[in-house]
Every structure is written in structure tokens, then in C-alpha cells.
Amino acid sequence: MARAPSFRTVCPRLPAVTDVAWNNGEAWAAVPSVDAVVTLDGAPRSVPVGRVVTLSSGRVYREDGSAVTFAGTAARGVAGAPTQAVTDGQGEEFVVLSDALRRVSDGAVLERAAGPYLVALPSGARTQEAPETVGQFGSYRLANGRLEALDALGQVRHAVTHGPGRVGVVGQWVVTVSPAGTLRLFDSQLQERSQL
Description:
0% of the residues lie in helices and 48% in strands. By secondary structure, the chain is mainly β. The chain folds into two domains: 1-120, Lipocalin (Beta Barrel); 130-196, Thrombin, subunit H.
């Protein structure tokens, strides 16, 4: 885990986790061996929630599809165990369940054959074939051995060589994490920050 502005990485000692998420500025991890979600930094908190399979920034989803908030209050869930979940910019929940993208509020199927990566949008969600994130300065994805900055039409504006991993936006920074845990920071034009 790394927190802005220093982006100094720390590795909390935990049993195996199924997912991690940010909720109201706090980093949380789902720890099924203790049937709880726990904070990763700041004030230590543990909320007993049952067997968790995935987290969004708004909800904790259990293996039966039921859901709770990070405070442990019951929330709308789905029928079955979702494999991924996100909260869009409007607070709406979306999950991938049985290989389909669904909106949680009404169960509507938005994509029947979901891709491997779930992406939260300002309003809605979609799945992609490559890791992607949407920020205030555009979309960014890791594909074809590159980190790419995309315009609103999906055209590549900037690109830099980059291996596999995950991509996100933290404030003004595009942040990537490799499978080995290497963290890299870029500005919106994909100029890499030299010092972490």
C-alpha cells in the first residue's frame, strides 16, 4: 500500500486477503480467514462481515452475494458470488456475476459477456480486455506493452513502454503497480515522476 503524496510503500502484515478497496479515504482489506474487513492504515479497525469475496468503494460483498457497508450495515446485494465490484462516480454499484456485468440497484444485465477488467466510470461501469481507469484528465490503460493515455473517443494521445500490472488515478497522478509490487507515477501526459 502507498499513500499520497509520498507514495512510500508499506506492506501490512495480514493473512491472505481476497480484495482491497478505498472507502472514504481509508484503505480496507477483506480477510476471509477471520470473516472481517480490516483497515490497512490509520486507526486500526476490524468489522465482522462474514466470508467476503470482493469489495467496491461503497460495499462489502459476501460469498452468497449479500452485501454490507464498511460499517457492517446491511446493503443491497446480488444473488450469487460476484467476482468484481465497483462504485461509479454517482455512488451506483456494479458487479461482475456469472460472467455478466450487472447494476446492483435493479439487477439489470449491462454486458452478457463481461471482459476480465471492471472499470468504474463517472456514471456507470464497463468491462475491458486490459486494465484501465478513468480520471478527470482522461482514461489510462495498460495494453500492448504500454501505458496509454486515451482521449474521449478512445484514441491514444500519449504512450510509454510499460509491462503488465494495474493502473489507477490518485489526485493528479496516474499510478501503476506491477505484479511484483513496483509502483510508478506519471502525470496526465505520461511523464514519469523520477523520485518516489
